[in-house]
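Bug: token stream looks shifted between consecutive jobs. Job 1:
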Amino acid sequence: MQDWISLRSPELSAAINPMGAQLSILRDSNGRDLLWNGDTSVWAGRAPLLFPIIGELAGGAFRVGSKEYKLPRHGFARNSAFQVVSASATAATFRLSAGGATLAVYPFAFQLDVSFVLAGATLNIKSSVRNPGSGPLTASVGYHPGFRWPLPYGQAREAHFIEFEHEEGAFIRRLDAHGLLAPQGQPTPVVNRRLVLNDALFRDDVVIFDNLRSHSVTYGAAAGPRLRVDYPDATYLGIWTKPAHAPFICIEPWHGIADIAGFTGDFQDKLGVFTIAPGEVQELNMNITLLA
């Protein structure tokens, strides 16, 4: 087991686990935890990285040409050991490359670099998917950070909300009982750019925004510090927690999404994927900023 890599600025400290290149600690300057602690009795994740798929596959498998490959929900990166490419007091980069184990379940050459840079009150996370092969590379990548709910600033859990940069559309998307994207939208719970958080929102799993107008949200209560999450490259945003008073809320920028129920097409035609030409790179950035 590799040691976690620690980063520090005057405003924040962070630690990243090379297993999954997972952000595992995020604290303010007074040592107060902003990130969920991965208590396995509730949810073992902290901020897992989603690659090369997001969500469930129809039938648990995807097809490339005449061949079928099975992958679990959210893919394999979150359970893979990354190489530490570089590390300093304020920055670190981790790498996962294709090999025998990945090629057996995902037949594409890839190099996935995940970099973390801490500057003042902002942590930047950048995932770069490079295609080192001779043919096209199809994939999805996403983030799944779980923040403390409530944040450690003395405000009640029920006072917390997520505020969008812009007004969002009239509908959200949901998953069906099999974890696949339901075909019909549902009326949005966002009112005047605010999603007021309560457990009832998540009885049907994740709340999905699939026609994003906003590229940032703030999270917290009306009084006290908030977090801002910027996601300039994401095409979808998921908001999720486990129902029944779980003490975290996940704000999840994605470039990809679960299969639509009944999808039987080729992987390159899957909703939300991107395709990278040989030698090219696809990036997904996320900034987490503590607002005083």
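Job 2, same session, no restart:
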Amino acid sequence: MIFNLGSINIDMVYQVPHFPAPGETLHSKDFTKGLGGKGANMSIAIAKAGGAVKHIGAVGKDGVWLRELLGEAGVDTGFVEVLDMPTGHAVINVDDAGENTIVLYSGANMALQKSRIKAALAGASAGDWLLLQNETSLGVFAAKIAREKHMKIAYAAAPFEASAIAELIDKVDLIAVNEVEAAALSTMADGVEKLLITKGAKGIRYRDSGAEYTQDVFKVKPVDTTGAGDTYLGYFLAGIDMGMAPQTALRRAAAASSLQITRLGAAAAIPELAEVKAFLSD
């Protein structure tokens, strides 16, 4: 079982010919609104990969529909609370090359209740995973509870915040970063047992208790790279939690994230397991 203390956002995605320069007003070519947030993306990826995941988070009254979408995707939403404040949201620009820029508003994601986290983790067992990232409050609080219960902790260290990482780094079993974040970590992650580095088109590197694994990416034409790393980690962690060999989990996650970037959106673009299997068999 994976317990994901994760963000839930309303993603507002604008298709633009290029990213606006300072002072530039730019017409967008298209606009969509949907479910996003690193936490929500990862929970949906875990569920679609066949994993069992309980999401711990919060939305405002304007975001109840997001909780419903999570549930429809197979995520246990019993510990997603509705607060009297705005839901977190992200303004995302996607250019013609499929690259993106993102501005976040945290909203309800930073107003989580300690009592809610305690109640959610009361049902966890030794060996279960707690998944964290930097888009919610109370990550350190949750990690301390998880340690007391002998859970394993996975940490997507994004958005990259050195102070947040310093508080969590000695409590985690697996840390996931992209290539730029890995360079910024320097030697901070040396004591972490498992290190997952996504390097874009250059592939993936994974270290587990001294063993090193690499995985190439599959060549596809990207449409929108938003959520690709979240899809990768969700699929990978689901595989590891189900006892899959690291190399097999890496390959399956690479296929899932490759398919995800051929579609517009974040959570809505995450492929079903059957699609991933078909892609790999081809």
